[in-house]
Putative deoxyribonuclease YcfH (Halomonas elongata), 200 residues
Amino acid sequence: MFVDSHCHLDRLDPRTHDGDVGAALEAARARDVRQFLAIATTLEGVPGLAALAREHDDVVISAGVHPLHEVPEEPSVEAIMETADGHGAVAIGETGLDYHYDGVPREVQYERFRRHLIAATQLGLPVIIHTREAREDTLALIREHVDPEVGGVLHCFTEDLDMAAKRSAWGSISRCRASSPSAMPPRCVSWRAACRWIAC
């Protein structure tokens, strides 16, 4: 049995099952995927994901704003919490820091990430963290705000084994790089088919 812990069901490639979410889910179920966590990249998209979850018992959702998503107004802690709680989200995210691409300034990403972590802590929910080329800031914010008993997933993880080891007690790691995966405890690593940058 498999769990798809990171799928963007609201952003299916139209070439895949003609963009039909139901068909895509059926194809995954036929391959023994039994649970799907539909990841939000905007707060505006959460109601649509919640509607999908109501249609499919094996779909649950997160609530959050992707670090590279440009928004007219940054979400407050309260807005993140209200959206997550109001739509039955089981996690906060996708949130985090991505310093590889220009677009959303780093200081904006940092504050957005901090607000998501505060919301997650107050709701007692795990966090889906996208981290790319942002090691020190990611670690600092996790140390300051994340409850290790609740944890989460480091997604789009591009860092080294040292950082992985520091965070392995906190949750699982969805790896982008294949260096030394055998050095990590199996409970701490989740696997995804990936290109140079995974579809994140």
Summary: Strands lie at 2-7, 33-38, 59-63, 91-98, 127-132, 152-157, 171-175, 189-190. Residues 106-123 form the longest helix (18 residues).
